[in-house]
Amino acid sequence: MDNPNPTSGADTVLIADDEPHIRHLVGTKLKMAGYTVLVASNGQDCLDLAREHHPELIVTDYQMPVLSGFEMSQALAADHDTASIPVILLTARGHKLSDDDLATTSIRMVIDKPFGPTDLINRVKGMLEQNKAA
After folding, report:
1. Dist CA 105 CA 80 (whole Å)
2. Structural domain harbouring 99
3. Which run of H or of E encompasses 52?
4. CATH of the domain at 71
């Protein structure tokens, strides 16, 4: 895990993906947009970092080792301390989640791979603004 010390005042976004190039691309774009970035390569590491750092948002892949992004999101939602952390789920599988699935997770948005980095950053920004307004 390549995790810098969080910058004071910057929103923290946790990225979880088992593909190094996706972690690098998304992390670089988020840092350039002014966010503090934490990085995990599997669902369990993501869950551990979320519990430790309480990021404002998590961007995770669906299919990962140890815990999938879906399983990690269920664990977040089941934990009172992390239940309010929203998740954007990235999926190459075109996976559709039912309303029942969403009710048991912290997933607030699903984005299919491949995705445009600029579009992802705009969605991250929009979700963070929406959460602050709520």
Report:
1. 12
2. 12-133
3. helix 43-53
4. 3.40.50.2300
In-domain check, residue 7: no
What's the sign of the alpha-carbon dihedral 41, 51, 126, 88?
Answer: positive
Q: Could you give the CA distance from residue 96 to residue 41 in angstroms, rounded to a whole number?
A: 23
Backbone angles phi, psi at 71, to 5 degrees: -60, -40
Structure tokens belonging to residue 114: 């491949």
Domain count, the chain: 1
In a domain, 4, yes or no: no
pLDDT tens for each residue of 52-103 = 999 999 999 999 999 999 999 999 999 999 999 999 999 876 667 778 888 8
User: In 3-state terms, what secondary structure has residue 86?
Assistant: coil
Q: Is residue 121 part of a domain?
A: yes
CB 59 within 8 A of CB 15: yes
What letter represents residue 80's amino acid?
A: H
Q: Looking at the domain assignment, is residue 2 inside a domain?
A: no
CA distances to 7, 27, 32, 46 from 66, rounded to whole Å, are 29, 21, 30, 10
